[in-house]
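Weekly modeling sync, notes
Attendees: S.R. (lead), two postdocs, one rotation student

Agenda item 3: backlog of single-chain predictions. S.R. asked that every request posted to the team notebook include the full sequence so nobody has to chase files. The rotation student volunteered to paste the first one in as an example of the format we agreed on. Action items at the bottom.

Example entry:
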Amino acid sequence: MTDLLFYIFAGITLISALIMVISPNVVNGAMCMIISFVGTAALFVLLEAYFLAVLQVLVYAGAVMVLFLFIIMLLDADKDASRLLKDKMTLAGSIAGFALLVVLVCAAFVGGQHLPEPALLPVMENPTGEGPGIPFTTSAKSFGYSLFTKYMLPFQLTGFLLLAAMIGVIVVSKKHEEPTGEKK
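Predicted structure, as returned to the notebook:
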């Protein structure tokens, strides 16, 4: 039963992601992205990572997609959709992405080598390694402790990138008024 559910949710995730990429309508693409996020959350549930599944739905399918939809509405991207499809950079990026996908699929089937799985180590209470460790579990405490100790730099960099993206959206969406008449 679990295998059947995996194939169903993986299919939903992949099909909605494909539709998101090839959809000419930006709003429909964002809606397909929400479906893809919910499918990914269902896969997390099958892996018994309930905390990650809830985070996936709340953070990505909820907050981030609402932000994306507001940006789409603010920029009125539907008017420029036909121009974006004909853009040379979009075509070049699509070709590069497809070529990368083909290379990765061929390497997975031909090479047969996979990345080694790291050993699960207990999370130490302090950075010196002294004291009892918190065993690796799927609990929020273990996840939070790892996030704010070992992965603090990537966490801060992600926050900085989100701030830069937000500033970029504000700059792009600002209406520029052109002077209608010159005074001499």
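Discussion: group reviewed the output briefly. Helices lie at 2-22, 26-46, 50-75, 81-85, 88-110, 140-148, 152-173.
Action items: rotation student to repeat for the remaining queue; S.R. to check formatting next week.
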